[in-house]
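Hi Y.,

Following your request, here is the sequence exactly as I used it, all 603 residues.
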Amino acid sequence: MCGIAGFNWEDPILIGQMAETLKHRGPDDRGAYVDDRVSLGHTRLSILDLSQKGHQPMCFRDYVIVYNGEIYNFLEIRNELESIGYKFTSGTDTEVILAAYFRWGASCVTKFNGMWAFCIYDREKQTLFLSRDRFGIKPLYYYFDGRRFIFASELKAIKKHGIPLEIDTAGLNFYFYQKYIGGESTIYKNCRKLKPSENLLFELNPRRITISKHFNLEAEIRKWSYVSVGERLEAVEEVLKDAVLNRLIADVPVGSFLSGGVDSSLISAIISQSKKDFDTFSIGFRDESYNELEYSKIVAEHIKTSHHCEYMDVSEGIIQKVISEMDEPFGDSSVFPTYLLSRITRQKVTVSLSGDGGDEVFGGYDTYKAYKWAKFVPSSLVKLSRLLINAIPPSDKKVTLGFKMKRFVRDYGESCNRRHLNWMATFIDSTRANLLGESFVPAENFIRCSSEDTLLSLQLNDIHNYLAEDILKKVDLASMLVSLEARVPYLDYRLVPLVLSLPEKYKIRFLRTKWLLKKTAEKFLPPGIIDRPKRGFTVPVSSWITNSPLIREYLANRKYYENSPLNFDYTQRLFNEHISRQSDNARELWLIFVYNFWKSNAR
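Below is the corresponding structure, written out as tokens. Let me know if you'd prefer a different format.
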């Protein structure tokens, strides 16, 4: 991976300062290109062609590129270009992207199988062409005020410009609703994200932005729907295998995360069939309701990998470090174990494959089961049981049956997708209004909600929102802090629409989630791994809030609420209810803590 940055004027000192903030993304090399129109900066994590031939910014004829990502099929594209006369001087995918852009223009990205965020400067046409990969694996932020156009891999690089940045109300509400900030919004006004599968063309004169889409997932799903189900089912395993093996290409050591869940276990098992004695990595926790280490050991022994595992604790120091590095408040607490896992992984390898995306693509979330339940549970039963279910006492354990039942009865009767979003929510509209007061914005104003009542609509909702701006952002943040490249085979652009096009029964059958993936995994993994209950990669936030002086300080000290949209009295009510075990408000309090700490400490 790498870090990229740039803007539309000449300033070699400022572009150097931007690159300095991104050095963790690329510790191996740093470079800049500056002329009288633009400044471009790059920090490099060397993965392909470790020589200076891979130095960026890289030039090709009238083009200059800064690029973050990996194009796994770059050798195929290179061969195609060489067959029509192109000459290459390096072994990098960067040079192939430049030549592909010269040959095919903006449509070149439709040929890429990979993850990317890049900017190509056309010196002759005086344009900046930016692109982000289909599913948003790599981040790309920008600022434009009609005069200054600035972009970077992280917001902290843009902040080096000293621009007055105000909190964006929609972004703030998005965060407290879903614990991440989705869409094109960020926490700041005038700072935006280039969304997944978008291209941006900035014309230097006149200063003008044009945004277009280079991939339409729904259209690709429709194309697959014309192929027989039998042919599609046969294709899934082969495409998945190819997706995994393609992501092993590198000139540095490659390993795999191995949690012991079916997603990462299947990826590791596929690798083990073609690569012997490769490294796998996992971490464990001393609280057994959160610990999965024993399962990862079973898988590692079964597929014969060199397995590295450690018991680790998320200390207050780790919490402070990670939140301080966040571009914007981010409330998914699994970022901390992901960071610790990335840290032990980086000791052995530079690249690691990850199982992220498997739940969204193959249908693995509890909300998908709740969708099925809602079709059969009569409303009269829900009404009768609501008071009884809400009386279930709170627990410090991982997501419990009681928690799931409370979510189910609370949102029963809402539309399919709103019920789904509210299940995933922390502060729904009514509670968020109490927290934010005049800054409250209804959820329907900032997050699109499909009216369809299908499992596919829920999956698309997650892929466009939760996957892009929570799951993938978490992995990028955690892995890049230790200069580790994470690759996600389940998000191969050939595999995603293929699986999503299949009938519901191949995703959830008799309330068995990820049915097709588990059937595929039966050829590779022991039964006890495939059918064990899903746990996820979470941490004991409830007990943290009760026992951590750091968290209590940022929740209970009034000074952190000064000049803040957050209601102090309402927060204290939530806090007191939680401490006295009247109610489990851990998720709500965690978001408030992260926001207060981030606002006070983020750079």
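The chain has a mean pLDDT of 92.

Thanks again,
Q.
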